[in-house]
Amino acid sequence: MSPQISDVELQEILDSRGNPTLRVNLHLDTGLTATADVPSGASTGSEEAVERRDGDPARYQGRGVVGVAASAGAALSRRLVGTRLGAAEDLRPLDDQLRDLDGTPNFASLGGNVAIGVSMAAIRAVADNLRTPLWQLINWLLNERLERPVQPILPVPHFNVINGGAHASNGLAFQEFMIAPLGISRLADRVRAGAEIYHTLRQTLADHQYDVGLGDEGGFAPAVHRPETALTLLVEAIKAAGYEPGPDGVAIALDPAANSFAQRSTMPSGPATYVVDNTSYEADELIDYYEQLIDQFPIWSIEDGLDENDWDAWSLILHRLGDRVQIMGDDLFVTNTGRIRRGIRQSCANSVLIKPNQVGTVSQTLDAVAVAYRAGWTAMVSHRSGETADTFVADLAVGIGCGQLKSGAPARGERTAKYNRLLEIAHDSDVADPYPLPGRLRPIGVSA
């Protein structure tokens, strides 16, 4: 007989920032318990699924979730007990039940943090019942949505080694400066390169009399204000660690997270002015600035280079820079199929960042990936700044064959857990580890 849910238990735990988050335990009548821990973002898009909190100022400054856990757990148990979780086909109906129970477009009632935890635990329960690796089940589910199959592959880790923006208090407007070992042949060597450059960067910063304290994602947070300074330090560290800066060695990816330095004086949907190190830029001027950085440094990807409501400017940046770098939307798309389709119609990007907790269920996450792939876009799977030791996103990156995963610096347990899971998959399976990676712009591992 197919396993059935016998109870749904939600528990308050802590994330990497010391804030409460949820652990979901799905108890099955077979005696199995499937578990998922839910991350939380600091830099968030306005259209993300709603994250429910208790709002009790006497506990965790209102950020507690013990009340959410009790009420949602009871409601879910009433609705989901008896639900079958034995086959891949059981996942969509369960996710649909979560949406029906919530009754809002963005999980404002049940909570996106509740929904994604249940959905992640459910797919783990099915994978366990089928005795199938999680990444393999994810791959099967994605390919059911596509006309041509995508092969699972081991991704290039994008290590966030310098933190700014909402992830640090150093005055650096751009949020993430990542190293991407695009030209290194094996996953184990890509991870090694990330770790070696990270440690070399620490010494480089110390040599230049910068503080080596850390930001939210384990990267260094030196008191630099100009992106050029951070990029110069990063290139110096790449070279000092014995690697070649660029697409044939170790490239750089940026997440400016422009929502955080966009200023609006008129309508929310109107054009923004952007302030970087006390310098104001109109959108076209900011794109000029990005182009100058691309000319000077080995940058291969720019994520959230513009505000999430500046749609016309997104079309401009793709037209100006899309043949040189990956133009990726995160806050712009929030893993939402409707927003991704709009981006495709308006030619706003050529890549999408995938964060399951932005949208609320695994089924919706895979729908978003499928929409992007059909358009010939690339994708990158991402953690959140408030993380746990849960490794779901590592299996997701392998299963959807996107070839790219960002999970912070190669330091701190909640970050290295994801990279270690990739190493485990590489060791225990025959997942493809393609090399050389063809070109700077490509749907990595995608049969478009």
TrEMBL record:
Its main location: cytoplasm. Keywords: Cytoplasm, Glycolysis, Lyase, Magnesium, Metal-binding, Secreted. The keyword Cell membrane does not apply. Mg(2+) binds at residues 255, 303, 330. Substrate binds at residues 167, 176, 303, 330, 382-385, 406. GO terms for cellular component: cell surface; extracellular region; phosphopyruvate hydratase complex. It is found in: Cytoplasm; Secreted; Cell surface. Binds a second Mg(2+) ion via substrate during catalysis. Residues 5-138 form the Enolase N-terminal domain. One of its GO terms (biological process) is glycolytic process. Residues 34-58 are annotated as: Disordered. Residues 151-443 form the Enolase C-terminal TIM barrel domain. SUPFAM superfamilies: Enolase C-terminal domain-like, Enolase N-terminal domain-like. (2R)-2-phosphoglycerate binds at residues 175, 355, 384-385, 406. Catalyzes the reversible conversion of 2-phosphoglycerate (2-PG) into phosphoenolpyruvate (PEP). It is essential for the degradation of carbohydrates via glycolysis. This is Enolase.
